[in-house]
Each structure stands twice: as C-alpha cells, then as structure tokens.
C-alpha cells in the first residue's frame, strides 16, 4: 500500500454512515448504511445507470448534503461545514472528472488546467514545479498534450479533452480524485490508454481514486471494487 | 479579479450575441443622451435668444404676447407706444440703452422690423454675442434695408437688390408698398435666433413708407400722394422697446415704475423670466421624448436579459465544471452579474461616445438649421445619472439569469455528463 503524507491508515478518505438522500420528500434515491474507502487506494465503484452514482458523488464532493446520516471526506464532516467551506474544500482537495464536457469552452487548454490552482492558493502551493505554468507544462507533457496548451478547447478531440480533464483533476496533488464515467465517451482502445494514464498520474500524486462506471470490464485497473446497487438500499427495495 | 477575467472571456466567446447586445444598449443610451443633450441645447438656445436685455416694454398687455411679438416675431402687439413715452424712458437716469422696435410690415412672409442703430450696437444673444454683418452695413438712410441671414439665404437675395414690402404680416398681402422700393445694403451674420428671420430698416423709413397714409389706410385711388419731404418725417409711435439698465439692481424698481407709468398704460417684462415661463410650456414635448427614450433603454436592457438568459441552458455544464473547481454559488451569481455589468458598461461608454461624436460632427448643421447651440453642450450630471442608471439597471436585471443559474446549479448538482 502506498504511503501518503496527507492521510494515515486509520483515517479513511471517504466514510458514509446511515446516509439517506432524496430530491423530493418521500422519494429517496440513496440509502447507504456504510461505505468506507481508505486513503491512497484506487477504487472501482460499479453502478449501472439509475443506481444513484452521480448523486453519491455529489454528496461526497459536498455539492449536495444528505438529509440524514454522516458524510466524512478527508476527515471532515461535510454536514458540519458551511456551503462555502464545502466549495473551498472541493476546489482545494478534490479533483473531479466528468463523463464528458470537463472544460470551460472559453478558456484555453492551459487555463483550464491551471484554473483550480488559480482559484485556491493552497492547492497552488502543492505543485511540484517552480511556477504554475511550468507545472501545467510538466503535466501536459506527461499526458502528451503539451502542444495543445495554448489552443482552444473546442479544437480538441474527445480523447484529448479527457486527458486535459485528467491534468485539471490531478494538478496540485489533491488528496481525492473522483471520476464519473470518464471513459464512456471514448472508444475501446482509448479507454485503456486513458485508464493507464489516469491510474499512473494518481499514483504519482498519491491521491485516493474513486472511479465510477457501469462498465465492469474496467475493474482490472483498480485495487478494490465496490458495487453501488449492493450498498444502496433504495435500489434493493425497488427490485424487491 | 478572476471573476472579471472569466466573465470577459465568457462574453468574448459569445462574440456575436455580446456585440449585438452591446450595440442595442449603446443605441438606447445614444438616444437617451442625445435627446437629453438636444433638449439642453434647445433650452440653452432658447434662453439665449436674447441676453443682456433687462426689460422689454410694450403697451399694456400680456407678458407672453409681448415676448412672442418682440423677440420671436409671432403675433401682434396689442397697441403702440408713443414716441414721447419712448423718449422719456430712453433718457431715464437708470437706463443705459434702449432699442426701439416698430413692426407691421412684411416681405414674403418675413417680418420687417424698423429700429435704429442701437439694435446693431446693443442687441445681444447667447450671453455675449453681438450682431454682425456678413456683408454690407447697417441701413442708415430712408430706403435702405438689411436682411437677416435666413431671409437672405432662402430668398437668395444679394446686396444692391431692390425689394418692395407688403403692408401687414400675411404672406400674400393685398396691399403692397410698390411705390417705395428698398435697397438691400446689408446682410446680417447668422445668429441661430429669430433675428435671422426678419428684415431691418430705419424707423424713419417705416414712416416714409406710410407717408400720406391716414389712420393706417393708404390714399384712395385717384387721391394724389403728397410729395415725400424727408424733413417732415417724424417718428410718432413704436411697437415696443428693449432696455438695458445701468445697474441690474435697478431692474425691478424700473419695471415697477414702467408698469405704473401714468401718461400711458405700459407693460414691462424681464425677458429671462418670461423665456423660462415659455420654456416650461414647451417642456412637455421634451418630457414625452424622454419617456420614449427611457422605454427604448429598457428594451435594450431586456435584450441583454434575454441574451444572458438563453445562454444559460448551454452553460449548465460549464457551471457544473466551475462548481467542481471550487467556485462558490455566490461567485457563480457574481459571474453572471459581472457579465451583465460588463455589457452595460461597454454599451453605455459606446453610446455616450456615439452621442458626442455625432453631436460634434453635426454641430454646424444643427446650429445653423435648428438654431441649437451644440457647442455649449458638455457632459452633464444628467448624462452621468443615465450612465449609472443603465449599469445599475443591467445589474438588477442580470439578477434574473443569475438567479436562474443558481437554481439550475442547485438542481443539477454535478450532473453534467448526460
């Protein structure tokens, strides 16, 4: 197991207890008795569509707050943080990759990569290179998109866009990286390329990786695997 | 700072919509400030029709009719003033100068004003402009006449030309003074005041023209006209006179003295006051225009609201990304408001600049055609208030799409993928 200075083996990166969440009263979409993800692990969370994946990830990243239960992320009880404190924590400590459309269309590739470090000083201090733009160059180099740094996001292929998304997620070594179906817009060959790049980069920054997909064939890239339908009691109740 | 940069880049990426929106706001602001500046110029020009004249004196009657007939050549004076009365006040110790005015004849619809050399010496408009001659000189003998600038240009008259005058002020008078032709000896420089629209002759010329008339009617047909003897000509009455005091403090007491002058019923008005009174009547039209331009401004701002609002649907994913990199809700709202503000500021700046550039380029045409002294017009408090109101209005209206973005983001969470 890798060692991370940001965490210890006692404190899990993510801990959910008796969490329930609904958008409309009486229609719960998520009921999780317990979910624990240890620091520094790369975890595959399998969830078919409709199993509450995105809702769960919104809860973990502090965009949504559960009506009941406890959500602890990187040692912090999110329900006890103010909305702006959760926003700050998300920008500072979490890297997030969407299924598609990860980039701000009116910013250049380089600006997209640097954005979270520009918004959060503390994240900017965790970079490895001397300056932010050198760091962006270094990461872009590793991901093979260095020549694209100054181009417009609109000129990138989908595969290139998802690499920029990796760069944006891992810059400033956030302790937690979350990926929500990032490969579903890629073809098979690129899927594997993307996954090896992602796991490689995350290993370098020693971040915890939570990867969510409906595609079970990807599970071999990860250290652990979980099934959302089996922990979300709402899904079980529906089946019953 | 970061937000302004983001807002700027976001607007730039939607260049066409942004440009059109800015253009529509700029157009509204141009209209609003243009109307305001023209109104201001009109007021200035109006108030400046006559200046440094402390009193206008005529026969007993209303204030406005006296002002209208004497200064604007509109309507008729109710009665005449005897020459004795005029002489009495002309030599009054408090009076510095007087300009006698006698009206009653016209030439092709333009009034003929009989006056004396004081008119060319003391008549002032727009604070300190004196009358001047573009060509020729002031009329000095009986059958000489000077033309206002507009009379000369629209009738295409030149020096040395012989013209005849009509009795009365109708354009097609049945009584013409064909037996007494006048020679054009001077053409006044343009003033952009009613002075341009009249002809000027001497008081004695007026008498000479009506020589042999009895009680305002010409000699009957067959009745022989007595031979004109200039030595017998004498000014017996004038229509009104302008007056300047030696010290402005004495204006009010002099006005009282004239109004209660026993030998003849007179009315003395302070032209600045009466001009102001007249302006307040004309002001209604301007207020209507201002309301229309404010409506246009609201339309411009609404077009901004629509542009920002419709862009929000395609920006849902973008906002989810901004949330993920740690932008707070408040900052998302601020981002939309900043965009609205940038659009409004750009629109306002372009709009005001366009107004002043247009006014600057067209000032000669406006001054000569409309008689509005544009050169006097500067940036006013009112324009600054309009500018502020536009930006403020934009920010307030920007609250609608900002609030929408906030609601969207709450509902979407991080659901940006599909």
Highlighted features:
heterodimer; A: 240 residues; alpha/beta; Rossmann fold; 9 strands; B: 418 residues; alpha+beta; 2 domains; eleven-stranded mixed β-sheet; 52% helix
Question: Could you explain the architecture of this structure?
Answer:
The complex is a heterodimer of chains A (240) and B (418). By secondary structure, chain A is α/β, with parallel strands linked by helices. In chain A, 37% of the residues lie in helices and 24% in strands. In chain A, helix 3 crosses helix 5. In chain B, a hairpin with a 2-residue loop joins strand 3 and strand 4. In chain B, the strands form three sheets. In chain B, strands 1, 3, 4, 7, 8, 9, 10, 11, 12, 14 and 15 form an eleven-stranded mixed β-sheet that branches. In chain B, strands 2-13 form a two-stranded antiparallel ribbon. The longest helix of chain B is centred in the C-terminal third of the chain and has 44 residues. Chain B has twelve helices and 15 strands. At the A-B interface, helix 1, helix 2 and helix 3 of A face helix 1 and helix 10 of B.
Helix and strand layout, with pairings?
The complex is a heterodimer of chains A (240) and B (418).
Chain A: E1 12-24, E2 27-38, E3 42-46, H1 53-60, E4 68-73, E5 76-77, H2 83-93, E6 94-97, H3 109-119, H4 121-125, H5 132-143, H6 158-170, E7 176-180, H7 188-205, E8 208-213, E9 224-227, H8 228-231, H9 233-239
Parallel strand pairs in A: 3-8, 3-9, 6-7, 7-8
Antiparallel strand pairs in A: 1-2, 1-4, 4-5
Helix pairs in contact in A: 3-5, 3-6, 5-6, 6-7
Chain B: H1 2-13, H2 15-47, E1 55-59, H3 63-71, E2 81-82, H4 83-90, E3 95-107, E4 110-115, H5 117-122, E5 124-125, E6 129-130, E7 133-136, E8 144-147, H6 149-155, E9 162-163, E10 166-167, E11 182-188, E12 198-202, H7 203-209, E13 237-238, E14 240-245, H8 251-259, E15 266-269, H9 271-314, H10 316-324, H11 329-370, H12 381-412
Helix pairs in contact in B: 1-11, 2-9, 2-11, 2-12, 9-11, 9-12, 10-12, 11-12
């Amino acid at each position: 197991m890798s060692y991370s200075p940001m965490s210890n083996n006692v404190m899990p990166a993510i801990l959910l207890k008796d969490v329930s969440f609904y958008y409309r009263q009486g229609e719960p979409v998520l009921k999780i008795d317990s979910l624990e993800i240890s620091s520094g692990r790369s975890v595959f969370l399998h969830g078919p569509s409709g199993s509450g994946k995105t809702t769960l990830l919104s809860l973990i990243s502090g965009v949504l707050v559960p009506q009941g239960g406890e959500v602890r992320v990187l040692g912090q009880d999110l329900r006890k943080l103010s909305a702006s404190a959760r926003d700050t924590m998300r920008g500072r400590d979490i890297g997030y990759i969407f299924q598609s459309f990860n980039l701000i269309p009116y910013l250049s590739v380089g600006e997209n990569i640097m954005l979270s470090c520009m918004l959060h000083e503390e994240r900017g201090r965790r970079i490895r290179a001397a300056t932010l733009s050198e760091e962006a160059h270094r990461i872009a180099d590793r991901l093979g998109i260095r020549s694209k740094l100054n181009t417009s996001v609109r000129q990138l292929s989908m595969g290139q866009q998802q690499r920029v998304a990796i760069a944006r997620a891992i810059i400033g070594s956030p302790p937690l990286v979350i990926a929500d179906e990032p490969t579903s817009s890629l073809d098979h060959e690129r899927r594997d390329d993307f996954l090896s790049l992602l796991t490689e980069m995350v290993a370098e920054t020693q971040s915890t990786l939570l990867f969510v997909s409906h595609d079970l064939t990807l599970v071999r890239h990860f250290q652990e695997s979980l099934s959302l339908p089996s922990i979300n009691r709402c899904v079980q109740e529906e089946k019953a | 700072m970061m937000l302004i940069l983001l807002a700027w880049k976001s607007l730039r990426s939607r260049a066409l919509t942004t440009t059109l929106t800015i253009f529509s706001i700029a157009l509204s602001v141009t209209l609003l400030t243009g109307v305001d500046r023209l109104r201001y110029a009109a007021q200035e020009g109006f108030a400046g029709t006559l200046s440094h004249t402390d009193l206008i004196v005529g026969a007993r009657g209303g204030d406005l009719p006296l002002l209208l007939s004497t200064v604007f050549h509109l309507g008729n004076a109710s009665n005449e003033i005897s020459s004795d009365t005029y002489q009495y006040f002309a030599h009054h110790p408090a009076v510095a100068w007087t300009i006698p005015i006698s009206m009653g004849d016209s030439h092709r619809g333009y009034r003929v004003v009989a006056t004396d050399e004081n008119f060319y010496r003391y008549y002032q408009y727009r604070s300190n402009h004196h009358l001047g001659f573009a060509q020729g000189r002031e009329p000095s003998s009986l059958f000489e006449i000077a033309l206002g600038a507009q009379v000369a240009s629209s009738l295409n008259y030149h020096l040395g030309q012989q013209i005849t005058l009509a009795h009365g002020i109708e354009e097609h008078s049945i009584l013409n003074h064909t037996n007494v032709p006048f020679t054009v000896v001077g053409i006044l420089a343009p003033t952009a005041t009613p002075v341009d629209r009249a002809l000027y002759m001497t008081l004695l010329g007026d008498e000479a023209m009506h020589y042999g008339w009895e009680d305002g009617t010409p000699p009957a047909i067959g009745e022989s006209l007595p031979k004109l003897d200039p030595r017998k000509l004498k000014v017996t009455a004038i229509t009104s006179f302008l007056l300047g005091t030696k010290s402005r403090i004495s204006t009010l007491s002099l006005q009282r003295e004239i109004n209660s002058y026993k030998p003849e019923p007179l009315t003395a008005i302070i032209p600045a006051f009466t001009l102001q009174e007249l302006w307040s009547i004309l002001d209604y039209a301007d207020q209507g225009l201002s309301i229309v331009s404010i409506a246009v401004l609201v339309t411009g701002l609404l077009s901004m609201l629509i542009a920002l609002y419709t862009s929000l649907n395609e920006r849902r994913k973008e906002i989810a990304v901004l949330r993920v990199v740690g932008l707070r809700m408040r900052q998302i709202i601020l981002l939309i408001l900043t965009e609205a503000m940038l659009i409004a500021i750009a629109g306002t700046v372009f709009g005001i600049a366009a107004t002043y550039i247009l006014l600057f380029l067209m000032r000669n045409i406006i001054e000569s055609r409309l008689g509005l002294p544009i050169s006097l017009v500067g940036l006013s408090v009112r324009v600054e208030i309009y500018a502020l109101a536009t930006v403020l209005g934009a920010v307030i209206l920007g609250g609608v799409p900002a609030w929408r973005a906030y609601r969207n983001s709450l509902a979407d969470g991080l659901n940006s993928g599909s």
